[in-house]
Write a structure and sequence with these properties.
CATH architecture: 3-Layer(aba) Sandwich
Bound molecules: NADP nicotinamide-adenine-dinucleotide phosphate
CATH topology: Rossmann fold
Number of strands: 7
Strand content: 5-15%
Radius of gyration: 17 Å
CATH superfamily: NAD(P)-binding Rossmann-like Domain
Helix content: 40-55%
Structural class: alpha/beta
């Protein structure tokens, strides 16, 4: 394929987006797709949502530049499922050079109800999955032409919330894992991280924590899924950035 200034920047690139069935994950998948990447949309339980993301990817391409969209599943608390997910993506797209670790759980855990199991679950779903996927995808990328990993953390990974201690700890681990893999996979693979602030209220409606974060931000409003998608695209394309944590939080972390 001949490239010219009208060729989208990610043509020929192959991306896996975890948790791509809705909200931030869907917005990231669509943004990478509109930049020309082939995208594997991962889901755990929401197959309908993931199929809709794939359909939107296919619709949004006027001429698809050879890009494809595919569907893949797996519970990322399961180590074997993480390894299989990278293999399946590799087979369905013919490679993998972009990994977006977006999937996560976000459970409120007030002190009176908090358990050790809450910690284990958040670490397995939000952090150990990032470790396992980065390890397996990173090896594939290093054996090929390199690649880019973008992890979706949270500003709570810098400054924990009392009602979400296990979640906050898991996101602190994601920030640290980003830096660890940036070092371990250099120079062929870059790893960067986004720390979103209040982007979208939880599915059950805004909670106190989200409203407090908005009130405490400099910009005094919720962000959007597209803000995160654009930041992810920027990090995928930023060839001289690795090990960076980009706060997309309306200035919350400065206050
Ligand atoms: N929304 C915000 O304002 C905000 C703020 C800060 C950080 N973030 C971070 O941004 C990311 C996306 O947020 P969101 O609000 O869009 O999330 P969301 O709507 O809660 O969706 C989470 C996704 O993760 C998947 N998932 C959860 N547990 C999984 C597991 N064990 N295995 C595989 N997949 C699993 C879900 O898949 P299924 O539905 O298919 O089961 C779902 O697609 C998360 O990392 C979150 O922590 C979000």
């Amino acid at each position: 394929m001949t490239r010219d200034s009208s060729t989208p920047p990610l043509v020929g690139r192959k991306a896996l987006v975890t948790g791509g069935s809705r909200r931030l994950g869907r917005a990231i998948a669509l943004c990478l797709g509109s930049a020309g990447a082939s995208v594997a949309v991962h889901y755990r339980s929401d197959r309908d949502g993931a199929e809709e993301t794939v359909a939107l990817l296919e619709e949004s391409r006027e001429s698809n530049w050879g890009a494809v969209a595919s569907l893949c599943d797996g519970d990322l608390t399961d180590e074997v499922a993480c390894e299989r997910l990278i293999e399946v993506t590799h087979e369905s797209l013919g490679g993998i050079d972009i990994l977006i670790n977006n999937a996560a759980i976000f459970e409120r855990t007030p002190l009176d109800a908090m358990t050790v199991a809450d910690f284990d679950l958040h670490m397995a779903a939000n952090a150990r999955s990032v470790y396992a996927l980065s390890l397996h995808a990173g090896r594939v990328m290093r054996a090929g032409d390199g690649g880019a990993i973008v992890n979706i953390a949270d500003v709570a990974g810098h400054s924990p919330w009392p009602g979400y201690v296990p979640y906050s700890a898991s996101k602190a681990a994601v920030i640290n894992l980003t830096k660890g893999f940036a070092k371990a996979l250099a120079p062929t693979v870059r790893a960067n991280c986004i720390a979103p602030g209040a982007m979208l209220p939880p599915a059950g409606g805004a909670d106190d924590q989200g409203e407090k974060a908005v009130a405490a931000s400099l910009l005094k409003r919720w962000g959007s899924a597209e803000d995160i998608a654009h930041a992810a695209l920027f990090l995928v394309r930023a060839e001289y950035l690795t090990g960076v944590v980009l706060n997309v939080d309306g200035g919350r972390s400065l206050v």
